[in-house]
Amino acid sequence: MSRSPNRRALLVGASATAAAAMLGGCDRLGNAEWFRRTLKTGEDANMFVQRLLLREATLAPEYAEADISPWFKPNGTGDPPDRDYKALAKAKFAKYHLVVDGLVEAPFKLSLGELRKLPARTQITRHDCVEGWSAIGKWTGVPLADLLSRAKLKPEACYVVFHCADTMDQGNSLEGGGDGEGTDEVPAGNANPSMTKQSGSGESRKDSGGQQASDDTAASGGSPVRYYESIDLVDAFHPQTILAYDMNGQALPISNGAPLRLRVERNLGYKQAKYVMRIEVVESFAHIGGGKGGYWEDQGYAWYAGI
User: Fold this and answer.
1) From CA 229, how far away is CA 60, in angstroms rounded?
2) pLDDT digits (tens, 9 = 90+) for 134-143
3) Whole-number Å distance between alpha carbons of 207 and 188
4) What is the per-residue pLDDT for 26?
5) What CA–CA distances, in Å, run from 266 to 14, 73, 236?
6) How far, in whole angstroms, is CA 116 from its chain's centroid?
7) What does the pLDDT read at residue 7?
8) Do 134 and 207 form a contact (C-beta atoms < 8 A)?
């Protein structure tokens, strides 16, 4: 089975490839924001070479049913402790709604049932974790491109941020304050570490996604630090980038991200956000969390995790 170039192979000869591209006078690359940042850091160099050698629609390898792993190890959180999430799970996500907003002309929200009625894509792909393990799974879900097209992106839109329900921390001394607005119905979660220390009562405080702070964190003066991730529009509109609600022909298990998780198949595992509650389209993620584009990125991981 043929495979796309791996990360190591793509990085070999990166400088020579970049020079050739510039000598060729590629206007399309030259006008791209990521190209203008190229070679400033190793991360940008990796992104440049991969985007140069892989066409935007190049697919990650897909596998046969026989290749599916007998057990797909859950990455990250296995069962979010959040009170509102547990209430949704107990009701089999009947009251769950995905919110799509931000820099869009037509924000909307959809129930899990409504998402399941939309055109779907099924793909069998390999999940590669930064910790060194891999697993192959079968995913079915809604192409992210369809949701973004429905929302009608504004011209200044550059990135898509996924706000999730899984709590990572309860806050620390490095975190600042902030409030946000959201819906009363959706526990979208504050995935933003720099927004977790808030003032006000437990009744009045809400995080950036609209989730009411839980009683225990209200008592300590801060709301939970929740997982969040972001990708650019190239990855967002890739045909294999989906919001998956089924895994291996069954409803997505809680341990693997129910009711909805991101699959962005040309990226490492930490980009595959689980428990997605809200999709926010932004011009920049500098104001979100630690400004690095994701929970683990705020801890030092590379934002671009292409493989």
Assistant:
1) 20
2) 999 999 999 9
3) 9
4) 41
5) 19, 19, 11
6) 20
7) 39
8) no
Strands 108-111 and 159-169: unpaired
Task: Spell out the residues 6+ positions from residue 19 whose beta carbon is closer than 8 angstroms to its own.
Answer: none
Please answer whether residues 179 and 192 qualify as being in contact, where contact means their C-beta atoms are separated by less than 8 angstroms.
no
- Tokens read off for 252: 């997505």
| pTM for this model (two decimals) | 0.70
User: How buried is 59 (Cβ within 10 angstroms: 0-12 exposed, 13-18 middle, 19+ buried)?
Assistant: middle
**Measured between alpha carbons, how far is 200 from 183 in angstroms, rounded to an integer?**
19
